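Lab channel / #folding
Pinned by the channel admin:
"Please post every new chain as: sequence first, then the structure tokens as a reply. Keep commentary short and put observations after the output so the thread stays searchable."

First post following the new format, from NK:
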Amino acid sequence: MLLSVNNIRKTINYCKKNGFKEGYYAISERISQRKNKYDYDEVEAEVLEKQAEKSLPLMPKISVLVPAYETKEIFIEDLILSLEDQSYTNYELIIADASETDKVKNKVEDLNSQYGNIHYYRLDENKGISENSNKALQYVTGEYVALLDHDDVLTPDALYEVVNMINKNKDAVLIYSDEDKGSEYLDTFYEPNIKSTFNKDMLLSNNYICHLSVYKSEVLKSLGFRSEYDGAQDFDLILRTLLYVEKEFGEDKVKDYIVHIPKVLYHWRCHESSTAANPESKNYAYDAGLRAVQSYLKEKEVAAKVCHSKHLGFYYVDYEDDIFSKRKDIGVVGGPVIENHKVSGGAMDAKGKILFEGLNEHFAGYLNRAVIQQQVQAVDVRNMKIRGDLKSLFEKTFGFEYKDLDKNISENTSKDKNQELIKKSLIFCNKVRNKGISILYDPNLKEQ
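Reply from TO:
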């Protein structure tokens, strides 16, 4: 019932913000997505046993950091038990409690007498999520820090998979995984967030990294949390970690230091006051997120306007028709191609598959991915802008000058000609990426 009530609340607020027409399409898309069944596949006991017995070359201590405040006893119990169930046991659980009552303290003490390995610290006062987290950081002794909200849980293989990734990439500064949502009593899981490898422009559009996130301790301690971004403190931290990596190792090396584990390792619990179930419960967090993106762009000396999109927690970076001078890393921008009110072209993968093909032009797609800026492997020439220094490469690939693009598209409307243009678009974009130049998909770029 809670989810139904929250869905109704979200729909009403969406309509108030964006109008009835947009609300109608949002409801229609939500209904169409119900057929997408998802079941979390629990890790088999035999697999967990093998993980527990396995000796990896690197077996660092993971400090699991949990700032708590008046947490329900069942939530803190579920959290602690999810740590006790881990197949990788070289960890410490640090709970920094800013509660006014003793309910968290009493529950932790009760469980600690049974399980141990819990480090509980009572904070003198509640100074907000960032300051409380900074206080907790003082007690960290592990080489890496995993961030866990006080009402969520980890899958039993979470820490093992993190350490396994560290062994594959010991230079990783930030490791993140896929996640899903769980009902209040964690008896149902749904809405998996299957993430991409690091995607800078997707991150500037939305904190898609979110949970689970694990940092090198020395980096996290040096950056800390900023209280002026409370509500989006994790997003701000991720953006400043990106900034740190870009400065220390170079923009072209980011994917070596911010790495993705393609597996659900985190259950984000949904209940009445959680952002997961009711995004409107923390509207201030989305304003803080917008300011975090602005802060990152300012540090990069990129002049752009950051705007809220129709969807809570999603942003649009407006470079005001001058993106190539402001973002030297981007050489091509492409938008959706619409035919018969459905997507027929636009963003593509490296093999030429159209990412949002067949999607209703009014729909946002899986986790709103169709309507946010993001780096992609290729875009469609039928809705494309390019940087000036790529015009020669464009002409060699397509056989006509870039200035004649509109004319050639209008004269070549047959299915075969469109397929030829898509094929050449893929060839052109592959050549661009081989030069180390990024390609941006911008859903707001309109066909000429």
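NK: The first helix runs from residue 2 to 18.
TO: also worth noting, The longest strand covers residues 258-269.
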